[in-house]
Write a structure and sequence with these properties.
OB fold (Dihydrolipoamide Acetyltransferase, E2P); alpha+beta; single chain; Dihydrolipoamide Transferase; 10 helices; 415 residues; Chloramphenicol Acetyltransferase; 4-stranded antiparallel beta sheet; 3 domains; 7-stranded mixed beta sheet
Length: 415
């Protein structure tokens, strides 16, 4: 029987997608629910899974744009068993044949050889997910078995090889390369240009003394990692500080919809991450109610999904405010572009030791410049500057984050 595989709908308003990559080759034997292709829409990268066991026949080439609902490949279920031919006519013959071929004295050695290059269940799962074959892995397990760590190491090496292969080498020759833009990159280009044309975007700046946060991280990072299983980074502090500031300046968390202003009583914070296929902004829902550990876990999970192209459209839509960190690439200062339909975005930058005046004396402190780009149609100067000052206060006095922006001593004294 021939089973047709059609392009699923990635979401509302999306009518076409691009075949980004075939995970399986034409003529491969696939199993039901196995991932066989990646597709790019203008919002996300998704995968197509096999709907039955059988042999795949590819009908659409990589890079082609097709309509949602189009047939891109077929699966011949009558050829489902052709991938693993056995040298025996029946299964019952196999044990007898093996016994006849292997002397009894060598059975232990034979058994050890039979386990070579056989992955553990967890290793096998990762190999299938990352399309890694056994001959790409160096086994270190008992009797030559492939462990989960072996596969992860192979995946890292494969990734480095792909990066090296894709990096153009300057030979002095005047070569020119043309690469088709992905649907995601085209959509991103349109959105960014639209923001510049359709909003009254301004940027205000401030600086943050990061001593308090860096001391907390230095003192508690090990116990935090041990208890929560995730590192204590800067993003959780910034997300928490932003949520506290948004409570005081709700216009920064609002959006324009026609002739109305939509205010939000919650903080869905988008975290801009750089992925292989372009900039993506996954969203942490109700960040105002999360602990630092929960925020760090969310950031890590979303970053991994972005790197692997596994983010869903729901995970990238509906944010009310965005944070972007150019500091990880060494940026000292920038003017981030608003992520529509949001009205503001906070830019983080690198931390540099700088001389600052403290109580009349010049001291060296780790300082970060921060930038808030905002839509002046909805946010006035008072709100934008006040919001950024509030964020600065929360970061320079982290204890205030535990008391909803209030002075801990005043809360203790009830004054």
């Amino acid at each position: 029987m021939i089973v047709e595989l059609k392009v699923p709908s990635p979401g509302e308003s999306i009518s076409e997608v691009q075949i980004a990559r075939w995970i399986k080759k034409d003529g491969d034997i696939v199993t039901k629910d196995e991932e066989i292709a990646e597709i790019d829409s203008d919002k996300a990268t998704l995968t197509i899974a096999a709907e039955a066991d059988g042999m795949i026949k590819i009908l659409v080439n990589e890079g082609e744009t097709v309509a949602v609902g189009s047939v891109v490949c077929t699966i011949d279920t009558d050829k489902a068993g052709e991938a693993t031919p056995t040298p025996y006519k029946t299964k019952e013959e196999a044990p007898a044949a093996q016994a006849a071929q292997v002397p009894k004295a060598d059975q232990a050695e034979t058994a050890a050889k039979e386990t070579q290059n056989i992955p553990s269940p967890s290793a096998d799962k990762i190999m299938r997910e990352k399309n890694i074959s056994a001959n790409q892995v160096t086994p270190t397990g008992k009797d030559g078995r492939i462990t989960k760590g072996d596969v992860l190491e192979a995946a890292k090496s494969t990734k480095l090889a792909e990066v090296a292969k894709s990096t153009p080498s300057f030979t002095g020759e005047r070569n020119v390369r043309a690469e088709k833009m992905t649907m995601l990159r085209k959509k991103l280009s349109q959105r960014l240009v639209a923001v510049k044309l359709e909003t009254a975007m301004l940027t205000t700046f401030n600086e943050v003394d990061m001593s308090g946060i860096m001391n907390i991280r230095k003192q508690y990072k090990d116990v935090f990692k041990e208890k929560h299983g995730v590192g204590l980074g800067f993003m959780s502090f910034f997300t928490k500080a932003v949520c506290e500031a948004l409570k005081s300046f709700q216009a920064v968390n609002a959006q324009i919809n026609g002739e109305e202003i939509i205010y939000h009583d919650y903080c869905d914070i988008g975290i801009a991450v750089s992925a292989p296929k372009g900039l993506m902004v996954p969203v942490i829902r109700n960040a105002e109610s999360l602990s630092l550990a929960q925020i760090e876990q969310s950031v890590m999970n979303l970053a991994v999904k972005a790197r692997d192209g596994k983010l869903s459209i729901d995970e990238m839509t509906g944010g009310t405010f965005t944070i972007t960190n150019g500091g990880v690439f060494g940026s000292m200062l920038s003017t981030p572009i608003i992520n529509p339909p949001q009205s503001a975005i906070l830019g983080m930058h690198n931390i540099v030791e700088r001389p600052v005046a403290v109580n009349g004396a010049v001291v060296i402190r780790p300082v970060m410049y921060v930038a808030l780009s905002y839509d002046h149609r909805i946010i006035d100067g008072r709100e934008s500057v006040g919001f950024l000052v509030k964020v600065k206060q929360m970061l320079e006095e982290p204890a205030k984050m535990l008391f909803e922006g209030n002075d801990p001593i005043k809360v203790l004294l009830g004054v």
